[in-house]
Amino acid sequence: VQLVESGGGLVQAGGSLRLSCSAPEDIFSGNEMGWYRQAPGKRRELVARITGGGRPIYGDVVKGRFTISRDGAKNTVFLQMSSLKLEDAAVYYCWVYHHYRDYWGRGTQVTVSS
């Protein structure tokens, strides 16, 4: 399963970024997808997930600041990140649950500067 992530980069605190994750159509369709992140020395944690039906689930640390969405025409999941904080800096991984397994993208780095 190939998940293609894009959109990471360097942003100032308080700024915004949008991450994208594209999946093959048979993987994207109907499956729950989302984003996790991992900062150096920390455990990987949930950022946001979205069900096949479009219901979002957010990690506590990003509620109210990040928005997850999915576009069936593009087989893509988006993560709109706003009001970024220094502690949001991490590698962000795309995730999909398919055929009773977790699949991960390679990750995209998000760096937040003061």
Summed up:
Helix content is 4%, strand content 52%. It has one helix and eleven strands; from the N terminus they run βββαββββββββ.
Which stretches are poorly predicted, pLDDT < 50 over at least 5 residues? none
Strand content: over 45%
Radius of gyration of CA atoms, rounded to a whole number: 13 Å
Distance between the termini: 37 Å
Helical segment tally?
1
Considering DSSP H and I runs of 4 or more, what fraction of the residues is helical? under 10%
Structural class: mainly beta
Please count the beta strands (DSSP E, at least 2 residues each): 11
* Order of SSEs: EEEHEEEEEEEE
Q: Largest sheet, described in full?
A: 7 strands, mixed
Shape descriptor = globular
Mean pLDDT: 94
Explain this structure.
With 114 residues, the protein is mainly β. The chain has one helix and eleven strands. It has one helix at residues 25-28; strands at residues 4-6, 9-12, 17-22, 33-38, 45-50, 56-58, 66-71, 76-81, 90-98, 101-104, 108-113. Strands 2, 4, 5, 6, 9, 10 and 11 form a seven-stranded mixed beta sheet that branches. A four-stranded antiparallel beta sheet has the order 1-3-8-7, with no helix packed on it. It is globular.
Topology:
Layout: E1 4-6, E2 9-12, E3 17-22, H1 25-28, E4 33-38, E5 45-50, E6 56-58, E7 66-71, E8 76-81, E9 90-98, E10 101-104, E11 108-113
Parallel strand pairs: 2-11
Antiparallel strand pairs: 1-3, 3-8, 4-5, 4-9, 5-6, 7-8, 9-10, 9-11
